[in-house]
Amino acid sequence: MDMQTRTSGVVTATLGLRSVLVGSLPATLMTDHSPSRYSVETSFTRQPDHDEVTGLLGTRTLEVLADAGYPEVRLAVADRRLIISNTTLEELRDGLASLLADRLAEISSEIQDLRAAAAAHWREAAVIEESRVAAVTALAESVAFLPSDPDVVELDDRTQLENWAAEGGHGR
Fold it and tell me: What is the pTM of this model?
């Protein structure tokens, strides 16, 4: 599944795994000296971001692995690779690969939901702030500096400018 979302104008595909990196497998695999458990490297479908790596390496993933019967499996991330330690190709083929793919999809979905909620919160906050600024501006514009005594004659702008010039307030 290659679900895509738009976050801040950038399209990001759901993080997944492509394939086993055969060159990283033990050279003695399928020989008399084959290790019983080993590390398998896989490539991500794209560079994982910090939140995805944190989710993948977190305690929830360890719980999911243990609950599914893989308590000894450990994960590490190196650039665009997932290193699955203490496993076998047979375990991956027989269910561990699907479990990891499901966990990555779950993590991606959780992160996308959190980011969407945060974006909605910021949009709402921006609307509230815009309304507040408009209200402050309207209130400020409603202030009129007029004399309370209607008999006091207000100076027109030209007279006021002449008075300021005489006071030296025009920059001379």
Answer: 0.64
